[in-house]
Amino acid sequence: MLALTLSVGLLACPLHPVSLDLELGKRALPGLPPDLARQLTKHPQAYRRGAEAAFAYPQAIHVMGPGNSLEEAVLAQCERLVAAIRGQASFETVTAGFGVLAHLVWDLNFPVEASTEAEARAFVAFLQSRAPRIPVVFYSGYESLPFSSRETLWGFILAEASRVSPLRQALSEDFRRVGGPGFWNLLDDRSTAFGVASVSLNRAISQYVALSSWVWHHAGGLVVPFPGDGNRILVWKGELKPREAPLPRLGIR
pTM, whole model, 2 decimals? Predict the structure, then answer.
């Protein structure tokens, strides 16, 4: 059976806890290909196990930097998932692989440098306290990605990774404004930090949906994207559950 997780190292993820991966997975459900979303909801413990396995990966995999190790890990996980589905791995195993992907996508969007541990802890606490008030948003502009080549996917991953730096700077400035990360609870919903939290979470959701859709399409599944022209966002106000496909269910190609 194809391994969808890596062997663990001595140092775990310095950025975010598994609870954020679970939140991402729940919020992403309406945007995922409906057949895929329905399968993932059948194996919640497998998804958690995958996220926990990714959390325990060597520290170097979790951070962006020279060598693009995180970006390469995201690409490699997408390719592993395609191979696993085409190789008829159990969907429990496949679901664990999507849990791994969710954790790596969060790493890619986490707006704090790994070296600033106090800021990382403060941001996680702030995000967890504000998450119920952050709407679920699916960004437009990713509609064609599922049908693109591996080379286009790699370019997409690199481009998305490059967008994090301004958010990191804005968050650090907001922490300094209130006296440091230890005073994160002084930041309200009108703060820059709230905006950073909202954008980071929803970018991660949108990217996870796009990457998962790429996997599903290249594994032979039906992908029914949200309509969009690259200039709009969709604020999801319905239940966080798999959506109904507007086209007949075609199964696996």
Answer: 0.90
Q: What is the tens place of the pLDDT at every residue in 128-173?
A: 999 999 999 999 878 889 999 999 999 999 999 999 999 999 999 9
Question: What CA–CA distances, in Å, run from 44 to 22, 40, 221?
Answer: 9, 7, 21
Q: The domain 18-236 is classified under which CATH number: 1.10.575, 1.10.3210, 1.10.287, 3.30.1460?
A: 1.10.575
Distance CA 8, CA 98 (A): 17
Asked if 85 and 135 count as a contact pair (C-beta separation under 8 A), the reply is no
What is the DSSP code (8-state) at residue 231?
A: S
Report the C-alpha gap between 112 and 78 in whole angstroms.
24
Element (H, E) at 149: none
d(CA 121, CA 125): 6
> What does the alpha-carbon distance between residue 52 and residue 176 come to, in Å, rounded to a whole number?
32
